[in-house]
From TrEMBL:
This is Tab2/Atab2 family RNA-binding protein. Residues 107-262 form the RNA-binding protein Tab2/Atab2 C-terminal domain. Residues 4-104 form the RNA-binding protein Tab2-like N-terminal domain. It comes from the Bacteria. Pfam families: Tab2-like_C, Tab2-like_N.
Length: 269
């Protein structure tokens, strides 16, 4: 089994007596049975110091993967990852680490840019809101020849303790001839969650990567807005679990891409 750490390296809210800015490294695993912390003055907050600390934290066994949620930490961690042969994974869902930061009353909010419209040449022919019972969700897609399939075990309804009759909400995009290009673009964007945003007009915003935001579609139709509100309510009942499905048409015979997504509750506090 892979050894996975969650790590943050960022300016500490604490300051030493002479007013120096401190940087603090926090590392834990998903259960927080392992925790490591170290601080340094900003003047030595570099890849060499960070490499030394990761080796100290690891002892005889370096992790296989380090998950990083903060964009400002990512580039430095990637340098260290290359030095030590560790995969660095941009990942918003670092729940254990974010809970630890909250307990320390450290900021975890990440600055996010305004959402950007999806490139016109990618959007499909039609789209709709949908739902699938939790007990059917994985079986419906896991055995099909789907080019892009993202059903992480940690997000599967059974592993979240969801009742099989709970409705898992989602959005289906019928991409037509653009279906595969759209699915490839979504995969490269690394989708995290798909949110209904009320406004004038209303819209669906795809949160992706560490801080990217994309407007998938806007709408002003009252019937679609009513369906969007049901979608948002069902997300609350499903522990934030939802899906995004891309398929060529509405025949239900072939699928191009499916992603299980979950609202980052800790990160949105």
């Amino acid at each position: 089994m892979s050894l996975v750490w969650q790590a943050d390296f960022y300016r500490s809210p604490l300051q030493v007596a002479d007013g120096q800015v401190l940087w603090e490294l926090l590392i834990c695993d998903a259960t927080r049975s392992f925790e490591y912390t170290a601080t340094c003055p900003q003047s030595v907050a570099n890849s060499s110091w960070l490499t030394d600390q990761l080796q100290l934290a690891a002892g005889a066994k370096l992790p296989d993967v380090i998950q990083v949620f903060r964009p400002q930490s990512l580039s430095l961690m990637e340098v260290v990852g290359r030095n030590l042969g560790i995969k660095i994974e941009p990942q918003r869902q670092t729940i254990a680490l974010k809970q630890w930061l909250q307990e320390k009353q450290y900021p975890i909010a990440v600055d996010k840019p305004p959402p950007t419209p999806l490139p016109d040449n990618l959007w499909g022919d039609e789209w709709r809101f949908a739902s699938i019972q939790a007990g059917d969700l994985v079986d419906l897609f896991s055995d099909r020849p789907i080019p892009i399939l993202s059903l992480p075990e940690s997000l599967q309804p059974l592993n979240l303790g969801l009742a099989s009759t709970i409705a898992i909400p989602g959005v289906v995009i019928y991409g037509g001839r653009r279906s595969l290009n759209l699915a490839k673009w979504i995969a490269q964007a690394r989708p995290v969650e798909l949110n209904y945003i009320a406004g004038a007009p209303d819209g669906l915003v795809l949160e992706a990567g560490l801080a990217d935001r994309w407007i998938l579609v806007t709408f002003a139709d009252a019937e679609v807005t009513a369906a969007a509100k049901v979608y948002a309510q069902r997300k609350q009942q499903s522990q934030g679990l939802h899906f995004l499905l891309v398929q060529p048409d509405d025949s239900g015979m072939t699928y191009t891409g499916i992603w299980l997504l979950q609202t980052d509750v800790v990160g949105n506090l």
